[in-house]
Amino acid sequence: MSGRSISINTIADCIRYGYRITAYCLASECGRSRELDLPALAERLGPDHSTLHPALAPHLRCKVCDGKRIQLTLHPDPRPAWKIADEEKGL
After folding, report:
1. pLDDT tens for residues 12-31?
2. Strand partners, 50
3. What three-state secondary structure class fits 40?
4. Distances from the Cα of 83 to the Cα of 20, 22, 24, 91, angstroms
5. Which of 13, 16, 5 is closest to 50 using CA atoms?
6. DSSP SS3 for 70
7. Is residue 36 within 8 Å of 51, Cβ to Cβ?
8. Which of 3, 14, 17, 66 is most buried (CB neighbours < 10 A)?
9. Which residues in the chain belong to E strands, given as ranges?
10. In whole angstroms, how large is the CA radius of gyration of the chain?
11. 39, exposed or middle or buried, with CB in 10 Å at 0-12, 13-18, 19+?
């Protein structure tokens, strides 16, 4: 990798750099988790919407128990850095 740093501040940043966000329901009787559909979320909230917990979590709700206590985890692109670089170059 080139040693450059990136900032993941918005939904569009997550999509662009291949990051994923998983939401976890913190209700003691539930505990479900689900990866967020970022393109759908960008359409609903706007691509420039913040991915910070205080800005994003209030818009989410557990589909199983309807809980509103949501924890978010950001996951980097699972592909190796060399593969990402090759894809950016069109190889």
Report:
1. 999 988 899 999 999 988 98
2. 10
3. helix
4. 17, 23, 30, 9
5. 13
6. strand
7. no
8. 14
9. 20-25, 33-35, 70-75
10. 15
11. exposed
